[in-house]
Each structure stands twice: as structure tokens, then as C-alpha cells.
Amino acid sequence: MARQYTGSAGKITNCQVGVFAAYVSSKGHAFIDRALYLPKSWSEDPARRAAAHVPQEVTFATKPQLATAMIERAIAAQVPFFWATGDTVYGVSGVEMALRRAGKGYVLGVTAQDQVWSWGKQPALAGPAEEVAAALPSSAWVRRSAGEGTKGPRLYDWAYLELADLEAADYNSALSGLWTRGLVIRRSLADGKLAFFSTWCPAGTPVETLIAVEGRRWAIEDAFETAKTELGLAHNETRSWHGWHRHVSLVMLAFAMMAVVRHRAEMMTPSQKNAQALRRQRWCAGQFRRSGVLPAA
Prior knowledge:
Layout: E1 2-6, E2 11-15, E3 17-25, E4 28-37, H1 40-43, H2 46-51, H3 63-76, E5 83-86, H4 94-102, E6 105-110, E7 115-117, E8 126-128, H5 129-134, E9 142-149, E10 152-167, E11 178-187, E12 194-202, H6 207-215, H7 217-229, H8 241-267, H9 270-285
Parallel strand pairs: 5-6
Antiparallel strand pairs: 1-2, 3-4, 6-12, 7-8, 9-10, 10-11, 11-12
């Protein structure tokens, strides 16, 4: 544990920070990997490492480096995915190159001050992302939903700028085809606040697809909220490397089980749901109760 920035609190505080990978599909979402971020002050302190039982082979790694390792593990495990998305911590880093080499598309958050430049595209663009956005005409914006939320469609205004077309083979000789590097800008309808996303996708990919990918981040935020409030993801006082990973792994397993149960329940027909409700009523009434110790008569 150390004083460091945490997104959940939105400030620097004494805490433990983990990097997580989540899998999101039309059938549900769940966490599939995790890593404890070890601050440099900890990784270089032998006494602290020994007290927390940090394995000798563990060295300091940035959050993007931890995320890159997770991407490589997911690919090695043949996890079926084509798109990846993440916040601004991972937008300008080795994560981009890892995904390009793997032939995966992405929509990764970047900051307003990150530099944007184009080549081979008109009009030519260069400068901080916020300045590029400010110069866009009103015709560049479209209003689309990022997906359904708790209160209905999550509507924003969006702009998509294609910056360059590149050959996939430039990053991996086993790949082929033309891919587009771009910038997606999201504008809030409530206050006009902007968010920026670096994109990589097959040439000709419509902006609606990129919006849908970015909208999947909502499921990840929902996963964190559910895991924290219902499964105790953050309710631990572990002081060791193994203790943190054991606690978090159990929470991830419980969340995955819930995701499977929820999906199966949603796939049930009305008659199946009615039959299940009837069995539950009979159980509560005591008609089907049996001792957990003694066999049924």
C-alpha cells in the first residue's frame, strides 16, 4: 500500500491499485485478468518486498506494461476478441503497438493535450487534440448513442477524424490489409465536455462501430461497481502480494459465475421462468426441503 493516484477516488490517497482486463460481449461481461500495480518506491525497497512476500521475479512495471502483458496472455489463451478499449492511462503507450501487431482494433482514451497529426488525409491536421476539436465545423459532428444505460440511450455528439491509412503488414508480416489510424471525439450534451480517443481499425470502418466499442467501457465501469458493492472487491485489508491476488481472484470468479447465471436466466422462455418461480415458491413453502445432513426419507 502506498500514496498514489486512484481513479475510483479521483485523487492521490493511500491505497492499493490494480490493473484489470475485462471481457465484454452481447452475452455479458466479466473480469478475466488482474495485476497488482507495485509502485517504484516499493519495487526498489528490499525490506518492503520481503514483508509483503513479493516474488523475486517481480520488477517494477508501469500500468500500460501490465496491460500489455494481459493482452499477450489473452491472445496466447486464444480469447476470441477483435476490439480493445481503455481509458487515458493506456491510450499513448505500448498498448497501441501490442494491439496493432496482434491485428486487433482499438478505441483508447487520450488526453486533450495529446498531439494529433495526419498524413495523406485532407484536411491536414496537427496540434493538441483539444485545438483540433475546437476547429471542427458543426457539420463534422453526429449525434449517436453509445449504448443503453440505466436511463435509456446514452446520447453524445461525436466527430471522427481519419488521420492516416497504414498497411497492417508494417506491424506484423503475417497480416495484410489497409488499416486506419484516427481520432474519435465525444462531446457531452449536458455540458459540452470533450473526451478523446485514439483509434485503429480496418479501413472503411464506420464511426458507429467505433462508438459502439467505446460504449463498451460502460459495462466495465458497471463490473467494477458491482464487484465492489456486492462482492467486496475493495473490502479487504490484505498486506501481502499473495493475499491481494487470492482475494481479487475469488471476487473475479464469483462475478463470472453471476454473469453466467444472469445470461442463462435471460435466455429462459416465459414458461421456463414461470416453472422456476413456481419451484421457488414451493421451496419457500417447505414442500421440497430436505436436510443437508440426513438423506431424504
